Amino acid sequence: MLRSNIIDAASSVEDLIAKLGGTGRGLREKTNSISHLLEPSYVKKINMIATVRNKAAHERVPPTNIQDFEHAISEVKDYLTELYYKKIASKTYSQSNTLFDIIDAAISVEDLIAKLGGTGRGLREKTNSISHLLEPSYVEKINMIATVRNKAAHERVPPTNIQDFEHAIS
């Protein structure tokens, strides 16, 4: 294996670690920053990869444990890729639950407004039809709830002002 191949292979591992949230200057620092997420045996393999990479980059003599390096690269990349896909799947699941929670909460508010006599097509119209019964601050909060609900329903991403939404709902 050529020096450039060794460095490229180690860089691909470093890129995966960065995608998992690893921070720092090099492969070891990035690995240490997320070591709590990794199985210890893989941390050990990644440190070996860093050692071989550093020898290839800084010494004239090629590292002697190339077969171990190639095997470790393959195993570590498979492991980190699997962790990355699990992270994405978990985030997507979490976002979809957040979206459903937002929509459900807004529907509950809309039902309450309807019980108070609000009429119209959506939450805003129903609220505006009985705004004379509500304090202006409540009308403002309900309009914000409608905005967040619409963003959640139509853009399929959790809104950035989720804390304001949760405060308005409570």
Describe this structure in words.
Helix 1 runs antiparallel to helix 3 and helix 1 packs parallel to helix 4. The radius of gyration is 26 Å and the shape is rod-shaped. The mean pLDDT is 84. The chain folds into two domains: 62 residues, no CATH class; 80 residues, no CATH class. It contains seven helices and no strands. With 170 residues, the protein is mostly helical.
Radius of gyration: 26 Å
Order of helices and strands: HHHHHHH
Structural class: mainly alpha
Q: What's the average pLDDT?
A: 84
Main sheet properties: none
Query: What overall geometry do the principal axes of the alpha carbons give?
Result: rod-shaped
How many domain regions? 2
Q: How many extended strands?
A: 0
- Taking pLDDT < 50 over at least 5 consecutive residues as the criterion, the unreliable ranges are none
Q: Helical proportion? A: over 70%
Number of distinct helices: 7
Percent strand equals under 5%
* Terminal-residue CA separation: 62 Å
